[in-house]
Fold:
Amino acid sequence: MSAREQFMTTHAKNIEAKRVYRRFTAGQNWEHAILLISGIVLFFTGLPQKYRTTSWSQQILSTPERLETIQQIHHIAAIVLILLVIYHLGRAIYLMIQRRLPAAIFPTIQDLRDAWQMIKYLLFLSKDKPKFGKYNFEQKFTYWFIFIIVGIMVFTGIIIWYPELITRYLPGGLVPAAKLAHSTEAIVAAIFIVIWHFYHVHLERLNVSIFTGYLNEEDMKKYHTLEYQQLTGEQIEDADTGGSQ
Amino acid sequence: MVMLKKILRFPNYLILGLLVVLSIFIMTNSVKAEEPHQPTDEYCLSCHAEPDLNITLQSGETLSLYVDPKQHSEAVHTDAGIECHACHTDITTYPHPELLYTNARELSRNYYLACRQCHAINYEETLDSMHAQIAQEGNLDAPVCTDCHTAHYVKEPDNPRSLISETCGQCHIEINETYIHSVHGGALIEEDNPDVPVCTDCHGVHNIHDPRTAQFRVETPELCAHCHADQDLMNKYGLSSDVYDIYELSWHGVDVSVYKAIWPTIWHESAVCTDCHGVHNILSTENPESMVNPDNLLSTCQQCHEGVGPNWTDAWTGHHEISLSRTPYLFYVDYFYKTFTYLVLGLSFIYVILQIIRNTGNRIRRST
Structure:
């Protein structure tokens, strides 16, 4: 039996036995997809603007019209991202008012303990990997780091998009600072996503739940032990718990 | 031998000597007599030193034929022994051939071509100039060699240097008036400063180009940088020589450097030095009249950034390095990205490496 056949069989069995668990709502899947697409567009239209004095950028932006076009694409993608931020925050506020906002994504003291235990484990000082709930500290770090990055990019982006308007209300010194922050933060974001996020969702294990919305039982047991126990009432002893999303 | 001794005996010796001297005298005289008559300066000035000497041209203009002997004697050409006929090749003696030019300007525009005989390179350069261009378009008042250098009293053009701005100022009256009140012109006139630019330092000498083109505009920062990025020169006057480098990093500077590199002939609006500092009216920043004096800065910005508020001027870092006192926001952002970001990205990277090591270790252990 080939690996693919094996996977398909297990997958069919899981669905048959309803042994998949909803991890993200369809709305959250869409949010991630829009963030991903707008982020990629923003990055690749921003890069030649950041490096305008280099020859590779000048080959792409070979006429003033092309520069204008790439700026327009950047601005359209920015509007999409801003709408996403408004939706995301709006929904959070709405859920908060309804007292239905899930607490799972907020950092707790337990995350620090988990992180400390994880570091001991990684340094071969301990054999036990911490057990995690719905979101482990790595995933929370990912979410909040990107949350802050998007916040900085939107804030500084608006300043350098409408500097003349903004300085009627805010200090002028913010403009060159925003320009520096916007262009540096973009690179920071790209590096962070490549080394941290790509490793955790592609290399460590392939986790596509952000696109499908579902996680299988095996991964639930292994990587979200506490959540699994909570959902099923089953106790898992001595599980080989993973540390990632 | 005996014969020779006989011939050379006195008085034969004396007669022979006289014959030799006489024949040399006759020969040289006869050669001179065969050449056409060349009038010397002295010969010409015997008439042309008369102040009232003039001629009425067909156009009705009265053309003075007077040459001031004193000024003429001080001219560089007189010093070099170059006399009237070198330029006035058609006039060999009196009476002169008839003048064929109908007006004084036509005469000047033809006679000046004589300069080309010796100053070929400079002449060629003038053909490439703005002045030649407007002459071709029909403006015959456009200057030729003799308009700037004079015809008969050519002197060193830059001794003193202020002579240059005076020369250009004969036609460019308003610009010269503005220039002599600028920080550059003032230092030139008042202290004969050897460092400040005169007209020709920025505009060139014989091949003066149109300064209103996109190309000239985009090359302006480099032009100013010839002096303003020269550390030794700027130290002399207590000015910063970093202004150009810092400008190059600014929003305006990056824009301009891109246009300079790939679109030099396309007009662009991003500010170059002269948009903020002025052109011929450049003044010290401390001067209350200066366009970049803190009190006037906002209205200078508003030339392009219409309707911006008073906070706007702080958006310009003013050719200064990032500093806590001048640009605090920029300082903190710069500091943040130079420290915290490296720390967070570095730790993330180390963490991922540790995970890779631990997971690989686990896999090896499991497979054995």
Remarks:
- Residues 30-36 of chain B have pLDDT under 50 and may be disordered.
- Residues 51 and 126 of chain B are 32 Å apart (CA to CA).
- Residues 214-321 of chain B form one domain.
